[in-house]
Amino acid sequence: MIDTSNPSPDGREKTSPLVSIVLPVHAQADHIGIVIDEFDEVLRPLDIRCEFILVVNGSADASLDTCRAMAAKNPSVLVIHTPLEGWGRAVKMGLEASRGDILCYTNSARTEPRELALVVRHAVLDPHVVVKATRKIRESSRRRIGSLLYNLECRALFDLAGWDINGTPKVFPRAFTRLLELTRTDDLIDLEFAVICREEGYPVIEAPTFSTRRRGGRSTTNLGTALRLYRGAFTFWRERRRRAR
Question: What domains appear along the chain, each with residue ranges and CATH number?
Answer without folding.
Answer: 5-244 (3.90.550.10)
